[in-house]
Amino acid sequence: MSRNNSFVKNGFLAVFYALLVSCFVVGICEVRFPSFFTIDDSQNEYLGFLRQYGQTWLSGEIPFITKNIFIGDNAMVELQRGIFAPQNILASLVTCLIANPLVTGWFYALCNVFICCISGYIIGRSLEMSRDISLLLGFSIAINPVFLYQYAGPWWNAANGHAWSLLAIATYCQLRQRITAGAVIANFATTLVLLASGWPHGFIGYLAVVAGFSCVDLAYGDPLKAVFRRCVPLLLAGIAAIPVYSEYVFLHPLLNRATGWENADNFMVPSLSQLLVTFSPTYYEFMNYFGGYKSVFIPVGFSTLFALPVAIFFRTSVRDRVLTACLVILGMTTALALMPSQMGILRWPLRFVPYVSVFAAITTFYVFSKRDVVESSFRRNVFFGITALLFVVSASKNVFERPKVVALELLTSIALVAVWFLYARSKKVSGKDIGLIIPAAIPAFSLLLMLASMPSLGRIYLPVNVLPAHVSVPAAVNMQGNLLSFVPWGREHPKEAADLQSSLFGYYNIRAINGYSPNGQDYTDAILTHDTSHTIFKPDDIIPKLASAVMLPGNPCLFDLFAVSSMVVSSDTYQKYHHDLLACGYHKVATAQSGMLYLSTPKAYPSNLAYSTQTGVKVERETANSMTFSVPAHTAPVQMVLSRQWWPGYTARGLNCKVNVSSFQDVLVQVDVPAGCAGKLTVSYFPHTWPLALGCLLVGMLGLVIFLWQLSRERKLQLILQMR
């Protein structure tokens, strides 16, 4: 009973500790740089789509499609948005219901830092570290520099995936201790959420950890059956998650995602020395990063200040199974972090660096927990020599570009000596646990050192917009349709629609062609040409194409089929294509403060029905995934074009005749109604592969039930045998 009470007490303490850590980390980062957790792609992509997704969830639908954002509209191929991940569902509701654009970033950061911290605690306890050392491990993992700077602010999906991968690793470590029903369910659930988060690097990192532990366990004599059984929840979760990925795999030939195997000038590839100096929160190097080859003032490979003292003064042995596994995993993750810049559909090996740092921290604190200190003058000389060399090298590299790094590096050296003095001397070793307050000051101090050097990636390396709760649109601008913006890049302080870019239009509920998509759609991208995922459109390529007449009754411009009611163009573009735009009905109606021009047509497109050969067709209802039409009696076939991006999966129902739903020029949705067929017609989208793929979800769940039943049966059999 006392053991159960201790378990519950420590569990509550761990949760409370993780809450304090998450509040401290998020608070101190926001104080150092307002909007620390809302910069770059979190604004360019996620805010706009999350608000649209939240509105769709609240209406009772699954947000497969966003009807108000054209580019990147299909969430089933934009895996990075992870619409089924619990955090993303909650974040979409938060974004939809709260006007402050920073709240979503705070929500994600609090959740993910908490998950990282509690994962570190579970991993530590599963590897038989003490309570206090496990809590210290959790704090150290939660301030991982790549996670904190590169993920939590710009790449929310990466932060989600990384956090859930750590929790999946933690539950796997529990399985290694003992296979129980609770551990199996926890590992299945966390792995399933990890897969739903849409962060492939997180799942690959998790697989590397499982593979490393499994290989070492086999080498140390564990039966193959036992090792395999630990992997069963992972395999079942993989089967259950097939519906998340099936549409992407099926539609891959239609997508325009960059792929290949190339070095790409070592873009986002860390150096080995950055990974080796894992004990310094102020060690910086040059790297090919956004904006070119430059000093990146983030300690990319940092794990914990304990790493150097523990490596020098604590005895280790490769006979220790856990230590061997940690070293094997360190080698595997380091190899992943040093791979080429583009690896198939994966890119930028920097994304694997957090796993190197995490297992450097796990290895450090595992060795530290053994309290086997070895002191000698030689070891002290090595320690102080490395500390002094680190100061000289780091200070000399940065003294001209960023002089304050010299002072920060001096503080790092002092902190390393303090850790040695407090914890790496034999006279300081005792049977008691290390405590909570003083050890927690070490990762807290490390975080302060990092923030003192680099307050945020925003403005220095990555763009950041100071977003208002609302933006204005001039009254003369026709918003009864899609807005097509040719703004090169949005303004830092947007005040009106002409200051926005990418999917930010969706955040302000402005229907727009602009969006964000790293995957693209081949045929759409051939018409709406752009260089990056941000859909910074090229007017010289696009306007002549959209201004051309389409071979349909009435000879509409292609602009009309995209339901473009207004545009934002530069004055040079307007002068260059004035006659083409005028021929399609677009006139200058207003000038933005930035000097960009608003053009509008008198035509209105209150829904995504952009064109119909039968003017009597009315849209009765439109949702994210469907449109319901009232089709009047007619004697000739009716052809309709919807200003929705074409994807297999659109079907029609409701009429007593076969209605064909196909693609218009492989870009838009076309609906053909036979002559004499009238009534209510519904055109809707449902993932093309799901009628089969959803069966995999059932198979995975059924497999989990069977596996749990088998475990229960074996447990009962063991009890019967023990009673005999």
Structure description:
With 724 residues, this protein is an alpha+beta fold. The chain has 3 domains: 2-38 and 102-453, no CATH class; 482-600, no CATH class; 609-685, Immunoglobulin-like (Sandwich). The chain has 25 helices and 17 strands. Helix 1 packs antiparallel against helix 4 (103-126) and helix 11 packs antiparallel against helix 25. It starts with a helix and ends with a helix. The mean pLDDT is 94.
SSE topology:
Elements: H1 2-32, H2 41-58, H3 86-97, H4 103-126, H5 131-142, H6 145-151, H7 156-177, H8 181-196, H9 200-219, H10 224-240, H11 242-251, E1 261-262, H12 272-276, E2 285-289, E3 292-296, H13 307-313, H14 321-337, E4 342-343, E5 346-347, H15 353-370, H16 377-398, H17 404-423, H18 437-453, E6 482-485, H19 504-507, H20 522-527, H21 539-546, H22 558-561, E7 564-569, H23 571-576, H24 578-583, E8 587-591, E9 597-600, E10 609-612, E11 618-622, E12 626-631, E13 638-645, E14 650-653, E15 660-664, E16 668-673, E17 679-685, H25 690-723
Parallel strand pairs: 6-7
Antiparallel strand pairs: 1-4, 2-3, 4-5, 7-9, 8-9, 10-13, 11-12, 12-17, 13-16, 14-17, 15-16
